């Protein structure tokens, strides 16, 4: 490619990266709003989170089409091709994060639309804050071509998983002690599971960055294997 064409290609890749970060910002806002709606029994905010799903889907399709266009037009190789493949995988996880945020909003709406007498109280805010932080870390790593955070994100994901299991046990106890809480406890269990799944998707994104930078697929190595991989040149 000529120097002029190379500059155009670089511009296209930067614009692609910017769109991914924009999509990341939208889904991060969805999570935050969904958790605020849960904390405040805000049904109007639930509807806002649910309606944002259309924007998330539109951006995912737009970015996907951009990737196909660049591959067909530029025929990228090596790291440029890995970068585009990373984008395709990342936007899939971001769209699924948006779906989980929408689920939280829908379950919150269902839970607060009826009698609130038997709503159990469990701590979900800490896990939600953690997964939002993990998402920011992963997207920042993508923006800066920095794969060094992948192991830390994986460690935090294990913490989120442990908190989910603890919350599940707590909810089961509520349901066993008072069957009247079963309906609301199940809604909270689905919400807790959505938070845990968001953490999984954030971890996936950080692992894609490793692939982009090192050319190695680390998705199924586990934490110990990932830590060893990070020590390699």
Can you offer a commentary on this structure?
- Helix 1 runs antiparallel to helix 2 (43-74) and helix 5 runs antiparallel to helix 7.
- 84% of the residues lie in helices and 0% in strands.
- It has one domain: Methane Monooxygenase Hydroxylase, Chain G, domain 1 (Up-down Bundle), CATH 1.20.58.220.
- It has seven helices and no strands.
- The model has no long low-confidence stretch (mean pLDDT 89).
- By secondary structure, it is mainly α.
Task: Name a few traits of the molecule.
233 residues, mainly alpha, Methane Monooxygenase Hydroxylase, Chain G, domain 1, globular
Topology:
Elements: H1 3-40, H2 43-74, H3 78-112, H4 125-144, H5 150-177, H6 182-214, H7 222-230
Helix pairs in contact: 1-2, 1-3, 1-4, 2-3, 3-6, 4-5, 4-6, 5-6, 5-7
Order of helices and strands: HHHHHHH
Q: Averaging pLDDT over every residue, what do you get? A: 89
Low-confidence residue ranges: none
Number of domains: 1
The CATH topology is given as Methane Monooxygenase Hydroxylase, Chain G, domain 1
Number of strands: 0
Q: CATH superfamily assignment?
A: Phosphate transport system protein phou homolog 2, domain 2
Tell me, what is the CATH class? Answer: Mainly Alpha
Anisotropy-based shape: globular
Radius of gyration: 20 Å
Based on secondary structure, the structural category is mainly alpha
- How many alpha or pi helices? 7
Biggest sheet, open or closed, and with what strands and sense? none
End-to-end separation = 30 Å
Helicity range:
over 70%
Q: What is the strand content?
A: under 5%
CATH architecture: Up-down Bundle
């Amino acid at each position: 490619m000529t120097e002029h064409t190379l500059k155009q290609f670089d511009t296209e890749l930067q614009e692609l990266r910017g769109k991914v970060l924009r999509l990341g910002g939208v889904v991060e806002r969805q999570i935050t709003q969904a958790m605020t709606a849960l904390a405040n029994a805000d049904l109007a905010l639930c509807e806002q989170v649910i309606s944002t799903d259309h924007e998330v889907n539109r951006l995912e399709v737009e970015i996907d089409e951009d990737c196909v266009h660049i591959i067909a037009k530029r025929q990228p190789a090596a790291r440029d091709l890995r970068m585009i493949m990373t984008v395709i995988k990342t936007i899939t996880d971001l769209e699924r994060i948006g779906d989980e945020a929408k689920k939280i909003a829908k379950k919150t709406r269902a839970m607060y639309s009826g009698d609130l007498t038997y709503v159990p109280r469990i701590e979900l805010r800490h896990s939600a804050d953690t997964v939002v932080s993990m998402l920011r870390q992963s997207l920042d790593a993508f923006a800066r071509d920095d794969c060094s955070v992948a192991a830390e994100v994986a460690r935090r994901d294990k913490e989120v998983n442990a908190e989910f299991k603890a919350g599940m046990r707590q909810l089961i106890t509520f349901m066993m002690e008072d069957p009247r809480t079963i309906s609301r406890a199940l809604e909270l269990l689905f919400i807790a599971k959505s938070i845990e799944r968001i953490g999984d998707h954030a971890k996936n994104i950080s692992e894609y960055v490793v692939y982009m930078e090192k050319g190695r697929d680390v998705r199924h190595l586990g934490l110990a294997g990932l830590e060893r991989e990070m020590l390699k040149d």
